[in-house]
From TrEMBL:
The keyword Cytoplasm does not apply. The modification N6-(pyridoxal phosphate)lysine is found at residue 270. It comes from the Eukaryota. Its EC number is 2.6.1.42. InterPro entries: Aminotrans_IV, Aminotrans_IV_CS, Aminotransferase-like, B_amino_transII, BCAT-like_C, BCAT-like_N, BCAT_family. It comes from Lentinula detonsa. Pfam families: Aminotran_4. It catalyses: L-valine + 2-oxoglutarate = 3-methyl-2-oxobutanoate + L-glutamate; L-isoleucine + 2-oxoglutarate = (S)-3-methyl-2-oxopentanoate + L-glutamate; L-leucine + 2-oxoglutarate = 4-methyl-2-oxopentanoate + L-glutamate. This is Branched-chain-amino-acid aminotransferase. The keyword Ligase does not apply. PROSITE patterns: AA_TRANSFER_CLASS_4 (PS00770). GO terms for molecular function: branched-chain-amino-acid transaminase activity. Its cofactor is pyridoxal 5'-phosphate. Belongs to the class-IV pyridoxal-phosphate-dependent aminotransferase family.
């Protein structure tokens, strides 16, 4: 262990113990202080060894330090395309069940703390090869995004507000010590993948190509630390409505037994680890006839989110209508659809863009709301509607909430959506499908 011999600390065992715990920190001690003419570069060397991603650690296959260099900008230029030799054909849109069908190709980009981002490849969709000791398999070092590509009747392909997904993915990556990346560069690569897979984009209303960017820690290492190797991959799935009943209203169960997130936790990030613990409670409520759990917070039973969706409640307030959604307090996901609905509703209120059929006296609130308030609104006839929003679900009306042994009944419109969600949905989908021109709709070209 030349590292230890060269240090100024005297006890081998003590040093080894510190080394195990504070590997990254100790690196600054591992370069012998030189004498004579090289003495002046010693501080710089020490600094460099911390800045060079995992330099020494990797060679010992330990890897603690995180790549701290700038995200690479150049990687789209190095894209390799390996075309599948067994191309599948897109199934009829009617037969699509959300998340079961995948296109011919996927995008993969490896990362290591030594090299940064490596060569991106668009290659045949297929199994990944992973070490059983990969960090993702033990400590859930995995994040993902959900975005959609649309194709209009002239064949024009667009993405909806993809910059927001890139931003959120970077914030999720940073939260679980996965490497961050250049958003523009990844978006360029995703566009190339979508362009190659464009024939898989269904054109029917309510259908699209769901894009699933994902990142996992792949280092072979069962210690708990930032991984020194990761893989970013993107797969595509042609989809129809998220819920099997299409846009029909769903029933939620406001659970007081389980929680999804807590202050200071990870609820605001799109981590795989936020979703697995929700499956068992969801199975339980499915047996009682509810589609999803509505996650609450605190003894006041504040509404947070549904787990696949953000929540909106519509209340009658005198002669006004209030659209309420819980605030981004760190416990709920900053949804792209949520943000879009709020922005459209606020434009209506300010008069920047009037949405036909929305009331004149309209209030848009990002504020805490409790189950008691929802119960009272039901009792007084002031509960207008309640719906979820998300990339997969778009808008999903809710007709019933199971809460403390009773059901709260929520009014719904004739075809499910209510008087507020329907006009906003029309505006949103128009911008998604490109029938209403908007900056949110980003073209995908070759
Ligand atoms: C999305 O709306 O894109 C989601 O990520 C929900 C998903 C878990 C299906």
């Amino acid at each position: 262990m030349s590292v230890i011999e060269s240090g100024s600390l005297h006890s081998y065992n003590a040093v080894r113990e510190i080394f195990e715990q504070y590997n990254d920190f100790l690196i600054t001690f591992t370069i012998p202080a030189p004498s004579g003419m090289f003495a002046f570069i010693w501080p710089a060397l020490c600094y460099n060894y911390k800045a060079i991603p995992n330099g020494r650690n990797d060679r010992r296959s330990r890897g603690f330090a995180q790549y701290s260099g700038k995200p690479t900008r150049y990687f789209p230029e190095h894209l390799q395309f390996i075309q599948t030799e067994k191309p599948g054909t897109p199934p009829p849109s009617k037969s699509l069940v959300f998340g079961h069908t995948f296109t011919n190709h996927m995008l993969t980009i490896p990362w290591s703390s030594l090299e940064g981002w490596g060569t991106p490849k668009i290659e045949p969709y297929g199994p990944l090869s992973l070490e059983p000791s990969s960090t993702v398999l033990h400590y859930a070092q995995t994040i993902f995004e959900g975005m959609k590509a649309y194709r209009d009747e002239h064949g024009k392909v667009t993405l909806f507000r993809p910059d927001m997904n890139m931003k959120r993915m970077n914030s999720s990556a940073a939260r679980v010590s996965l490497p961050t990346f250049d958003s523009d560069a990844l978006l360029q690569l995703i566009k190339k993948l979508i362009h190659i897979e464009r024939d898989w984009i269904p054109r029917e209303p309510g259908h699209s190509l769901y894009i699933r960017p994902t990142m996992i820690g792949t280092q072979k290492f069962i210690g708990i630390a930032p991984p020194s190797e990761a893989l970013l991959f993107v797969i595509c799935s042609p989809v129809g409505p998220y819920y099997p009943d299409g846009f029909k209203p769903i029933a939620l169960y406001a659970t007081t037994e389980y929680i999804r997130a807590a202050p200071g936790g990870t609820g605001a990030y799109k981590l795989g680890a936020n979703y697995a613990p929700a499956v068992m409670p969801q199975k339980q409520v499915a047996k009682m006839g509810y589609a999803q759990n509505l996650w609450l917070h605190g003894p006041e039973h504040y509404l947070t989110e549904v787990g696949t969706m953000n929540m909106f409640v519509v209340l009658k307030k005198g002669d006004a209508i209030e659209l309420v959604t819980p605030p981004l307090d760190g416990m709920i996901l900053p949804g792209v659809t949520r943000d879009s609905l709020l922005s459209l509703a606020r434009d209506h209120v300010s008069g920047t863009y009037k949405i036909p059929k929305l009331p004149e006296h309209f209030i848009v609130s990002e504020r805490p709301i409790t189950m008691k308030e929802v119960q009272e609104a039901e009792a007084s006839g002031n509960l207008v509607e309640l719906f979820g929003s998300g990339t997969a679900a778009i808008i999903s009306p809710v007709n019933r909430i199971g809460y403390l042994g009773k059901d709260i009944h929520v009014p719904t419109g004739e075809d499910g959506m209510g008087p507020i969600s329907r006009p906003i949905w029309t505006e949103l989908v128009g911008r998604q499908m490109g029938t209403i021109p908007s900056d949110w709709s980003v073209p995908v070209t070759a």
